[in-house]
User: Fold these one by one.
Assistant:
Number 1:
Amino acid sequence: MPTLRVAGTFPDWRPFAGRGIVTVLILTMTGCGSGKSSRSRISPPARGGATATVAQGPKTGPPVSKSTRPTRAATARKRPGIRVNEEQGQSKALFEVVNLKQADLDNLASAGLRQQQWQELFRVYVDQESKPEKQDPPAILGNYFVENKALRFVPRFPAERGLRYRAVFNPSKMPGHAASEKPVVAHITLPKARPPSDAVVELVYPTTNKLPENQLKFYIHFSAPMSRGESYRHLHLLDAAGKEVDLPFLELDEELWDPAGKRFTLFFDPGRIKRGLKPREEVGPVLEEGKSYALVIDSRWQNANGIVLKESYRKNFTVGPPDDKPPDPKTWKIETPPAGSERPLLVRFPKPMDSALLQRTIEVKDGNGQTIAGGVTIADEEKRWQFTPQRPWQAGKYVLVVDKILEDLAGNSIGRPFEVDVLHPLEKQVQTELVNLPFQIVNPAR
């Protein structure tokens, strides 16, 4: 059975040891397809029985009094029950009695009851659990309505969330009912309102709006830690007509998050990227040159506290030709600052590079091999790397040390293409284990 062996860097796959960035092999079946697309999933190696945690929000729906199981003689009708209705919003919650006979509702609507009679029929109190109920506290004031097949009570002032209420419906007070009928009692606590969400998608890398046909992955950056376990449900790839592309992404059992839970790595299905493989031949590529797409992140994605995103996010982009050439450091341009300044060192690339790897695969060393401390900024659609030192530059020789695992958008790394197109052989590529780019800082001219 032929297999696809895809070498790529997984900055956020923690089960593997290394320097924070590791190279792993993905194995997917490519020789036993049935002509139908199947969801690509990869499970990471077992590591001490660790499991993913799925964050779940609280159950929704209005609280309802416990229903009484009907007798055989009354199986055709449920017993009246009391519930809270919040269809008009949390600030307009109302109490209502449901499962009443239509004849009873009609009688109540035409009875012309006074306020005291309405309260004797259906009243709501603040439930004082700590006090013995020698007598009922004053009922909450409000208005009564018969509508939508229910008897409704609308408090004069909005019900307080988190406060426990006691609602009592006395059917014996309805016209034509026997005095022996027992009341229906419900204890209801309105759940406290959730604070509005401030979690948003801050940015999606790559930031350019033109991607190669063999684009390998996205990095999704959030403003707050997010829930895990159901991430792929909230990610959608749409074509120019707004139709969702079927199964475009590689869905991993252990999702790829950074330690803070604020950056998610999303891979396209490698089997539909690499040419000459069965998934691509049978189903077709995910992205096609010359077409437009949109990555949509829906707002139902919950943060780590179970609160959904403030809004959805959409990244529109067009697709260019595939990129098969590995990055060549010989084509990079280094712009040096003057000695005595704290101006940044700039490195410009001819094409966009992997944003996450740019943060950690390049360092600056002095002539003695000591690493220079400073901060890294990525700009110009990931075509510019700039390094600002913590201390002013000293005149002398330096070297830019680049780890060969640095990739471009298609997953080509220094000295190694992501794939070789057998129909169009590539030119001879750079074969370098480690890249050292020397440069010199000089004193400004006077």
Number 2:
Amino acid sequence: MSNTTDVELAAVGCDTALAVEVKHDDKLSEAEGAYVQAAVLYTSVGGRRRLRVLNSAFNCCTQVADLFRCCELDTYVNFIAKQGYLFSIIIFDVVKAMAWTVEAKAVGPDAKANTFKYRARA
């Protein structure tokens, strides 16, 4: 598992928000917790290079009830909703591509022309 991941953004303003899903491949101890450190290196409007380091400590739990009791539910639900929306767009594109393929094989070599004529009439 890689320790760092670089993300490059064209422009970040005061209204920009980033959501990150942290995956860990080992067991976490409830007693010790988990620590995450992130660094943001950017250039200010005046051309000065700046570095912001963000340190966070998290409690770990084994019970789902503890998770919902200790987390910020608005943030969690917003993050899950956005993931679901992006996943639904991907699924929609896959289903559309599959339908196009099945339609192309069923109609024959002139499938694209027939499909466009059919959609134009609809």
